[in-house]
Write a structure and sequence with these properties.
This protein is α/β, with parallel strands linked by helices and about 450 residues long. About 40% of the residues lie in helices and about 25% in strands. The protein has 14 helices and 20 strands. The structure holds magnesium ion. Magnesium ion binds next to loops.
Length: about 450
């Protein structure tokens, strides 16, 4: 059976992997699986969006689903609207932060939660077996249009009222937040300067992935106009990155940890969810205020699922995907920006001061060559062999690769998805500690590889 879903929906090169034929089958299969009566369909600004939308909608209509077309909105707006309008399923056509020649289909259920592995596998099976639940011809209807933005604006307005008139530069990167991003901050009372706020599926201004490298223009404009904060979103608006008043890109891990601490403090305790790659400063900060951290596999689906399961107060990944479960379960870039400003107001801090308390650690990354047929076996063998090399470890988790926690840091060992490599990530409380962990970790992996090659 072909694996169609990755860690964030069905995604690939348009007209090569993601064809109209596949989009139609996804529509047919999800409608059959969910026994859906009502669906919402939205897309980002990619040039292939309309083509993929038509194909997907055709599949949904063929199964008798009532379809509402949302148009170009950010992923969190679609996810929230799916729940708010009591649809059975919501589709977001986007390849997130990938280059413009890619597109994808993210699927949300009626609670705003992304389809989990179980649902994805069930959909793949229906496609493989061609067992679609087609409707009687009399039940086929026409798709209609719906404007869901007012519902999203209403959610944010009821949740947050800012006291200060923040000067904010918003960089939508020509993606799905082009109008909603600046508007949400304006509605909250900010003075907004909008950058790259024209929808353009070629992403001519910058990469759709917000990084220190791709946000050079934003960093400069923040300084030039004397703004308090710069905000940037990825292609579909489920990630957010921040720039401080000095025009410096804010470290994702430090901000995640600072906001986690704020959430726990506000809730007087509670659980925070993050993935295995995030810095240990998340534990450090959350535990300070009586919170507890749960770690999942990499991928926002896993983070959101765990947030729901553990009733967490907050969760996120160190790529700027933050989930606020009191509102919905989808990572939400624009809403996170407004909530962060509210946090700064409550703490009476600048962005720089907000992260100042978070301890900074040293991260090292290495890729070790390893045959494709052995890389997963090597990683699987680490659990048993770890004790000999790291007798002092405090925790060992196999939720995603192998993550070994020590008092002085941690290491994460994962097989590359595509290349003949084993990827090692190490974080240490100092460079000396990080080098020591990386040195011992490398020996451990190489020894296991030698053993398995015999
Ligand atoms: Mg995204």
């Amino acid at each position: 059976m072909a694996k169609l879903f990755g860690s964030s929906g069905v995604r690939g090169l348009v007209n090569s992997f993601l064809t109209p034929e596949l989009a139609c089958k996804v529509g047919l299969a999800v409608a059959s699986y969910a026994k859906a009566d009502k669906a919402l369909v939205a897309r980002d600004t990619r040039v292939s969006g309309s083509m993929i939308e038509d194909a997907l909608v055709s599949g949904l209509l063929a199964c008798g689903v009532r379809v509402s077309l949302v148009g170009s909105v950010p992923t969190p707006v679609l996810a929230y609207a799916t729940m708010r309008l009591k649809a059975d399923v919501g589709f977001m056509l986007t390849a997130s932060h990938n280059p413009p020649q890619y597109n994808g289909i993210k699927i949300f259920d009626g609670t705003s939660l992304s389809y989990t592995d179980e649902s994805q596998t069930a959909v793949e099976k229906i496609i493989a077996e061609n067992s679609f639940d087609m409707a009687d011809w009399r039940e086929i209807s026409e798709a209609s249009n719906v404007d869901v933005k007012p519902f999203y604006f209403e959610m944010a307005r009821d949740a947050v009222a800012l006291c200060k008139k923040w000067r904010v530069v918003v960089d939508s990167g020509c993606g799905a937040t082009f109008d909603v991003g600046p508007a949400l901050l304006k509605n909250a009372g900010c003075h907004v300067t909008a950058l790259n706020a024209q929808p353009d599926g070629f992403f001519p201004a910058r990469s759709s992935e917000p990084t220190a490298e791709s946000l050079k223009d934003l960093m400069q404009v923040v300084k030039e106009v004397g703004a308090d904060v710069g905000v940037a979103f990825d292609g579909d608006g489920d990630r957010v990155a921040f720039v401080d008043a000095e025009g410096s890109f804010m470290d994702f891990d430090l901000l995640l940890a600072a906001y986690a601490a704020y959430s726990v403090k506000r809730a007087c305790g509670g659980t925070v969810v993050t993935n295995v790659e995030a810095s240990m400063c998340v534990e450090n900060m959350a535990e300070k205020f009586g919170g507890k951290v749960v770690r999942t596999r990499v991928g926002d689906v896993y983070v959101s699922e765990a947030i729901k399961r553990y009733g967490a107060v907050f969760g996120g990944e160190p790529c700027g995907a933050w989930v606020h479960p009191s509102f919905h379960y989808c990572p939400d870039g624009p809403f996170s920006a407004v909530l962060l400003l509210k946090a700064l107001e409550e703490e009476d801090k600048s962005l720089r001061e907000f992260v100042a308390e978070v301890p900074k650690y040293v991260t090292l990354r290495e890729n070790l060559p390893c045959r494709n047929d052995l890389k997963h076996k090597v990683v699987a063998s680490i659990e048993k062999a770890a004790n000999a090399v790291f007798p002092e470890y405090t925790n060992l988790s196999t939720v995603d690769g192998v993550r070994i926690a020590l008092n002085t840091g941690w290491l994460l060992i994962r097989a590359s998805g595509t290349e003949p490599l084993i990827r090692v990530t190490v974080e240490g409380e100092s460079l000396k500690a990080a080098n020591d962990i990386m040195g011992r970790g490398t020996v451990l992996i190489e020894n296991q590889y030698e053993e398995l090659k015999k």
